Amino acid sequence: MPSSTSSSDVVAGPLRVGLASLGQLLRWVCARLWLAAALCALWIAALALLGLTRPLAPYGGDHAIVDEQILRSRALGATDVLLLGDSSGLTAVDPVVLSRELGGRSCEMLSVIGPVRPPGYARLLRNYLDRGMPLEAAIFVLHPFALMHAYDESRDGSTLAAVLEDRWPSEGFAGDLRCALNRHLFAGLLEEPLAGSFGVLYGNGRELRRALSEAHGSVVHPGKPLPGAAPGSEPNAAAEPAAIDYRLSDDGRRSLEHMRDILAPVRGKVPIFVAFAPVPASIAGEKEAGARSRLLREVVRILGLPPERALELPASLPDEQMVDPTHAAAPGRAAFSARIAPLLQRVLGPPPLGR
Amino acid sequence: MQFDSPTFLLFYPVVLVLYHLCASSLRLQNALIAVASLIFYAWFDWRLSFLLLTYVLVGYGAALWIHAERDERRKSRLLALFVALNLLGLGFFKYFDFLRENVAAALALLGLESSWPFASILLPIGISFYCFQKIAYLVDVRQGKVEPERDLITFAAFGTFFCQLVAGPIERAAHLMPQFQQPRRITRAGIEAGLWLCIWGMFLKVVAADTVAGYANVAFQPSHHTDGWVVIEGTLAFTLQIYFDFNAYSLIAKGTAHLLGFDLVWNFDRPYFSTSAQEFWRRWHISLSTWLRDYLYIPLGGNRRGTARTYANLLITMVLGGLWHGASWSFALWGLLHGLALCVERLFRARFPRVVLPAAVGWALTMSVVVVGWFLFRVTSFEAAAALLGSLDRFTWKPFDRAAWLAMLAVGVPVFLIEWWQARAGDLLAPARLARVPYSILLSVLLLAIFARFYGSPYAFLYFQF
User: Fold this and answer.
1) Which of A330, B256, B274, B374 could bond B280 through an S-S bridge, CB–CB 3.0 to 4.6 Å?
2) What whole-number distance in Å separates Cα of residue B384 and Cα of residue A48?
3) Domain limits for position B110
4) Using a CB-CB distance cutoff of 8 angstroms, which residues of chain B are in contact with residue A210?
5) Same domain, yes or no, for B160 and B61?
6) Would you call B328 helix, strand, or coil by DSSP?
């Protein structure tokens, strides 16, 4: 008797074979991997239970600097002089030189980067003072360019939020977990090197943090000294003319007002000074004579500080001591620190007894 | 698409599922592989799929023609013709710009100007690999080592197999073609081996290679901070990177093939354990070195035409092998260095047959040649090489140096321990044979490390550029 095969049998037969093969594959794969997957889940659960999966600072030199300074602001021991502000001061001032020149006063730096903005710099000072730590003087070293131009929100607004809210923005559970694994399980050993010249000098963010801490919160900029000034290299700034128009922008004003509000509870408790960082000599011309000094005094006024708190530091350094319009090179750092030490000594007076 | 890309992590499981659903039909499975492979290749650049198809069709037809030809001399002439066609394609896409630049430089030396009105030639990814595979196939058919494949779908699957298409291993028809001609048997051991190879390979690429790659890239970029330490660390980092990277690709290729029931050749056998240059070339990029031996060195005469000719054949083979990697004099120099090392070793053995160097000395000498060779391999130009070598007169310890050494040790030590274990066990799959609990612990650490680095900084597989 002839057998008949329906079209569904023609399809079902091979499909059954295929499903059986697939099922066998899945069984073997699961059998081999289930325990490893369970262990991974346990590791992750342990990290989560220990609170180690909270958002951490993303990779990169800027984030490493900001994160490290946030941690230092909460852990720093008693210090006499605290320097704060943006990266112009971070790279232009050497706390070790200052400490020596200021009669042995201890000097620490909590300067960060420009995107943190003045409210962020003030917050770091508050982090230190709110712990009841003593302080003889706080000096904000700012770059005037940052106050003259509009702030670009898209350029890393996360660092300001991290400082003000003490929490880095989440990169999603996967991103936060990735950071946690790198920092806590693999001790940062798998960290990428930093980009550009920071990479060649400091390696990765972990080494940058270590170098920053060892240098009392400051950083040597690894860039090559200028052969001649390169206007316009400051991020957020348009190309700077040879004569600078020192004029406060609306955004700069708002930023300073916010800073004033954060400093209000401590303004009367500790002397707060404000200074401007230097620019390369080749672009140090002022559109209006005395405009830089006027801008500085206006900043001090907006912050609610007495006029004498405006520190007139050297406005420029030779081009070969700068790497760009806003950052000093290693030779410039030493030179600038040595030049401003006597000025600060006059302002601060002799060191307290016992030093 | 790269093996370590999210796209491949979606692509491959889909292919795997469809492949197993087609388990009842070998032809359907081969067709699926051919189509999937074309999609895989077209993902890089869809235009290149036409080139690949051309190589497949020419290879298919040429083998049948050569086999059908009865006259031996005509067979050889046909072989020569089609090998030349293959090489012409490779030469055009890979070496035309190099040739043009060197001709222009030579003319400039004579005070003559030249101009080329067209843009540079696009280098099709993997062309060096599949061109060599097709040449080997045609030669083997001519020599009667394999029968030409008559079924186009089977041949297309063999000629485009995505697991090894763009970065090897360069599979011989005698080994791979039969696997397309008969039903594949999927075994538990094969699945377990495949899983281990894929995961270990992914770790080697995403974690080990990509971690040290960053330091190698930083070290080889021009900087006024470059000093002797940076040059040494950059070279060592690249030494590790190229091994981890290329071994990773070969392992993932082998592992993904295993999961489909295929067996690909081992392409690396712990080359950095070698104690002689000859041993190094038995362990490094095995499929390429055996290809060069069988299809270049031996046809040139090998060691059968006297001592001088043997040394010449070695040097020619190694220089051409260097140029296979890329159209640059630094690659040729790299090949020449290895050729000279092989010649010196041969000469030493001939002159002092009773002298046996201690393994440690042999290893140190071998690795010295290998590391110096990698420096030549990595530099982008002779000017860059001169600048880097000029930095060797100063050494200033910096945070970068500590970071680089820690990174190299962090990834190098675990890899070395695994390889040392494989050497002791005499089994490259030794970790896959661990008991369930220790194996799972090892896997969980590898998987977490892979996840931690997965979006770190994706560097393309190095051998994609060859």
Assistant:
1) B274
2) 48
3) 6-184
4) 399
5) yes
6) coil
Is the alpha carbon torsion for B211, B213, B214, B220 positive or negative?
positive
Q: Which of B24, B410, B440 sits opposite A17 (nearest CB)?
A: B24
A180/chain B closest Cα distance in angstroms: 8
Q: Do A199 and B443 touch (CB under 8 A)?
A: no
Q: How many structural domains compose chain B?
A: 2
- Tell me the two tokens of residue B365: 């000498």
Based on the fold, state whether residues B41 and B76 are members of the same structural domain: yes
| Residue partners of B224: CB distance under 8 A and separation at least 6 | A197, A224
B252 Cα to chain A: minimum distance (Å): 16
Whether residue B20 is found in the same domain as residue B97? yes
Same domain, B166 and B219: no
B455 and B433 belong to one structural domain: yes
Structure tokens at A109: 């730096």
Q: Looking at B157, B184, B211, which one is the last position of a domain?
A: B184
- The residue in chain B having the minimum alpha-carbon distance to the alpha carbon of residue A211 is B399
Asked if residue B437 is part of any domain, the answer here is yes
Helix (H) or strand (E) holding B313: helix B307-325
Whether residues B96 and B172 share a domain: the answer is: yes
When scoring B24, B187, B206, B400 by the number of chain A Cβ atoms within 10 A, the one with the most, hence best to mutate, is: B400
Q: How far apart are CA B401 and CA B403, in angstroms?
A: 5
Is B320 inside any structural domain? no
Taking only the tens of pLDDT, chain B with its 466 residues reads 888 788 898 999 999 999 998 888 899 999 999 999 999 999 988 888 899 999 999 999 999 999 999 999 999 999 999 999 999 988 888 888 888 888 888 888 888 776 666 667 778 888 999 999 999 999 999 999 999 999 999 999 999 999 999 888 999 999 999 999 999 888 888 899 999 999 999 999 999 999 999 999 999 988 888 899 999 999 999 999 999 999 999 999 999 999 999 999 999 989 999 999 999 999 999 999 999 999 999 999 888 888 899 999 999 999 999 999 888 888 999 999 999 999 999 999 999 999 888 999 999 999 999 999 999 999 878 888 999 999 999 999 999 999 999 999 999 999 999 999 988 898 888 998 899 999 999 999 999 999 888 765 567 677 766 6
Say if CB B256 and CB B285 are below 8 A apart: no
Shared domain check, B29 and B158: yes
Is B451 in Cβ contact with A177 (below 8 Å)?
yes
- The answer for B 441-460 residues in CB contact with A (under 8 A) is 441, 443-444, 447-449, 451-457
CB A133 within 8 A of CB A79: yes
- How many CA atoms within 13 Å lie on the side-chain side of B448? 26
Cis? peptide before B169, omega within 30° of 0: yes
Residue B100 resides in a domain:
yes
Select from B152, B184, B216 the last residue of a domain.
B184
CA distance to partner chain A, nearest, from residue B218 (Å) = 6
